[in-house]
Amino acid sequence: MSTLLNVENLGIQFGGLKAVQNVNMYMNRGELIGLIGPNGAGKTTAFNMLTGVYAPTEGTITFNGKQIQGLSPYKVTRGGISRTFQNIRLFKELSVLDNVKVANHSLANHNILTSILRLRKHFNGEEKMEQQSLAFLKIFGLDIYKDELAKNLPYGMQRRLEIARALAAGPKLLLLDEPAAGMNPQETHELMRLIAFIRKEFNLTILLIEHDMQLVMGICERIYVLDHGQLIADGTPAEIRANPKVIEAYLGEEVAD
Amino acid sequence: MKKSKVFWGYAVIALVLYVVVQVLISTGALNLYYQNMLITMCINIMLAVSLHIVIGITGQFSIGHAGFLAVGAYISGIFTMNLGMPFPIAILAGSAVAMLAGLLVGIPTLRLKGDYLAIATLGFAEIIRIIFLNIDYVGGAAGMLVDYQTNWTYAFVGVAITILVISNFTNSRHGRACISIREDEIAADSMGINTTYYKVVAFAIGSFFAGLAGAIYAHNFYFIQPTTFGFLKSFDILIIVVLGGLGSLSGSVIAAIFLTIVSTYLQGFPETRMIIYSLVLILVMLYRPTGLMGTKEMTDLFKFSKKGVTKA
To answer: Which of A86, A165, B150, B247 could disulfide-link to B219, CB 3.0 to 4.6 Å?
Structure first.
């Protein structure tokens, strides 16, 4: 197995606050990794650095053999990393289909003039985007909603659409930021199956932030634990469960009698 | 196949509209007063639609649109009056230079957001106006005399091209990219959209058609003056777009027609004109807070009867 992502000494400082520091992690191709930690531990900040939303103040991110730290988000995405958001960020006034089509942007290459003049290349490109987007919607059971505005979808479906959209951007590495947040146990269970399915189908490597321990322990092969901006543990689910540091971070220190 | 049928449907309607008005004008049934109202209407439509692509589609709140109108007006005036070029070339030159001005203004300012962008664009429009005010070659504060060359044909073709280009742009992967920026810039960026590029492109296209409107405008009033292109003009255009509904092209067109008619008829009541005009605006915004059309298009209205026909 070869390494897809290698993070060394990653850190970011906001003013005097070191939000994340000294994070070292790696991901092999095809792995499904969990990133957990208490609220405010810096998980989403780490995601934002991986996807280019924040430029790290120290350290390097090597993805697919290239250093990508500090690149703008659209370049990172085109390079093969795409993500979902913790607080859903769909294009609310666009239809479900168009949400996916936006992420499919780079699939076609007809330019602006071609579109304005409505040349054949425009129609071919748009058709290709439409077919591909519909295929993604179908996988997520969203094809029946394709003309609905994204804001009108039920909550669970909006979460699914976020994943469909991220997938349409054509990633090698998919970052999921709390995909099961607010879902009931049955929805969570379906989501687990769906994640396992797309991982196989699209040869994805997946990094997952999640608070739902059942989900994380159930599907992740390895887990990294962040607390106060630093990695405090990594290992298989069984190792993590038994790690005293992790238990301390989540439950607090044991009181000495 | 269905999509091109829809297009030809609109093309036929537009052609009929053009021919009918042209016949009415040549037979003298429409006097100069109405002709002028129609041309003003066309100019307002071009301005509104060209601002719609910046504010309604891309969500960049620019209130300096009159600056690009001024560039189009003055450059085309220079081409016809000082250089003796034919009108069509002057129109193209005016639009192209307005587009360049749009690029020049857009590249530094579009990294700003919301209120800051509004103030920056307002400032740039004023700079453009002051530049014309201080160049004697174009008459300075006294203004510039421009031959009357605009007619119904120029105005109508201008509107047709503006609407066609902007609606074609909007209904493509490029337009969707712009709308995604309006909806959520961070998400758009994270989906692989080069947001800076598309903001600048939308701004440049908007400036181009504002310049086109400027060229037609300059050759319709015999006379252009820097004061005409002050920030009040920018607000006039903004009002049309907001009234029509942010994000709706047909809304912009309808609002431009509506407001031109209202303000033309109100010229008979000079004392109360602005009061009534403002009251109309307040009433519309009270009862239709998202504008006349919201984000809907005329084509959406036909969808209910013909299910299965997707938006072109």
So the answer is: B150
